[in-house]
Amino acid sequence: MSAALLVMALRDPATTAALDATGWNSLIAMARAERLIGTLAFRLEGLGVPDAVRPILADTRDDAAREARQAIWEADRARAALAPIGLPVILLKGTAYAAAGLPAGRGRFIGDLDILVPRDRIDAAADALVAAGWEWVKEDPYDDAYYRQWMHELPPMIHAERDRMIDVHHTVLPLTARPTPDAAAMMADAVLITDGLYMLCAEDRVCHAAAHLLADGDLQGGLRNLWDIHCLCEESSERQDDFYLCLFEKAAHHQLTAAVWRALRLSHHLFDTEVKAYHVPIEVDYKLRWSDRAFISRLLARNGWGQETRKALVFAFFVRSHWLRMPPLMLARHLLTKWRKGHRPQ
Amino acid sequence: MRHSLTLRIGPATFRIGSAWAQPIDQLARLYADYPDVDGAIADFTVRLQPTSAVRRWVRPSIFITGDHGLADAAPMSLAHGLLAAEMGMNLQMALGWRRHLLLHASSVEKDGRVLVMTGESGSGKSTLAAQLGERGWRLMGDEFALLDLDSGAILPFPRLVSLKNKAIDVIAGEVPAARMGPLLGATAKGDIRHMVPRADAVARMGEGGMPALLLFPRFGSGPAERPVGQGEVFMRLTQASTNYVALGEPGFAALTRFVAQVPARAIDFPSGEAAIAMVDRLWSEIA
Fold first, then answer.
1. What is the pLDDT of residues B137-157, one digit of tens each?
2. Chain-centre distance of CA B58, in angstroms?
3. By the 8 A CB rule, do B131 and B219 touch?
4. Does the ipTM surpass 0.85?
5. Sorted alphabetically, which Pfam families does this protein's record hold (chain A) (predicted)?
6. Contact A28/B at CB under 8 A
7. Residues of chain A with pLDDT under 70
8. Do B164 and B265 fall into the same domain?
9. Which residue among B96, B131, B150 closes a domain?
10. A227 burial via Cβ count (<10 Å: 0-12, 13-18, 19+)
11. CB nearest A305 (choices: B45, B68, B246)
12. Contact A306/B41, CB-based, under 8 Å?
């Protein structure tokens, strides 16, 4: 059993008609583990499901609506905090999709509030947030220094009264990563959602999601990120004929061509994203490469009890995530420091 | 997972998986008279898994998790596997249940009307509910009372009653041995022993009743009694609810209606017998 079951249900919800009780239990457990249960609940809305499943999905949809409402309120509070210093709030990821009512936001789990501000204004932004009630949460001086020197975001802050986390980014990849996306261009191209809230333009949304999925982390929660990419691409290519060409152009500018192309191959393979192949002006096809198979195995590493499987592969991707972030010597120093502090990979 | 069991308690169905046979076998014995829901679609998955690969075999250690889990949950010894399974189910309810307002309270019913008792761990609410359940009341639950958002009724959640320390001897003296679980010594909360509710509590676990009296019991002094104002009741119940915030406006509406309609008393009592006498008197006077 693998998360292929979940992928199938998201891609073609009607196939769930064939599931028995064990199938449903597995689907629900893996969707919860991947934090895709809200998305699944919206995909299955209006379809005939067993009586025992209906209230589970209804609860999930209510939860998702409340989460979206909370997330948008949190974005509004950040807007109010940063307005006095003249900083617009550029929303990233889940909150942006929810605030803009994009299909990618339907039922989507939203964790922290992620915003993007110019690097030279980041201290002013942090001061303004502290003045409005946010507090630093990282207590470890090494972690704090690490964030400030090498990461693409400030150490996380949490609001004292509302208990919600904010991540203030100044770019979309760690400074130690090999690609260097053009954060200033992303900010310049940002589009207004409403009332002083902005999001990245359509192409940059996909670039960011692909960078986040493939050029940064260890693919924890990767299916959710890939589903974002699928929804973002489907929606934008429907509205804009030359969307994929524009996307390739932006990806090249942000040094993210490899990440974006792999994301499209994976999304096309798993979710049937209707990508458009090109011969002119550039050569793009969506045949899976050998290395894509490792990514797919990693993305699907989940059993019917919601547990992660394929430990060795998962560990390999954990190692890869560090390799992507740091040159070897720095990586060695970082791992030694973390090991001494008692951190162990899961 | 290698061993598994599906249980229905009140309105909720749990699929419990375990790396070891022992917790599942113990659950199967104690829940033998509950509805047979083998293979049903469950609301929640609970997992009892080794804290690491080695800990499956060597000094086995359980990590309790499932659909909902806490990353920093304390590991438990396999000897306490039954308690781990119960905690796993409670965890799912506390973090994931949305169909009722969840009150951390015990409840018992008589003539279709419900007595709700809430208080911190150690207040005596479980023991008192268990005792009342043996004396003419129907036990509805010792851990969670489910407040229906539309009707305002309290619905049962009659899982095994978890008896701690001195309460164990008090109850074990009144209840046949077949309804008692194994003694789990030296857990994080001291000694624990589970008790199977009486057959009528299990048979009528789908049947709710309107709340008629709310008590804040406290074992250890008294006897003393005082009325509790609606403001205080409201604040204490929001703290006693794990899903009040998550339910939003419907939760607020249900709780304000409960607070406005149900009389509340705080009672301090030195012994179980004194508590039962106070409950009987208050029930006949104001409920």
1. 999 999 999 999 999 999 999
2. 32
3. no
4. yes
5. NTP_transf_5
6. yes
7. 345-346
8. yes
9. B96
10. buried
11. B45
12. no
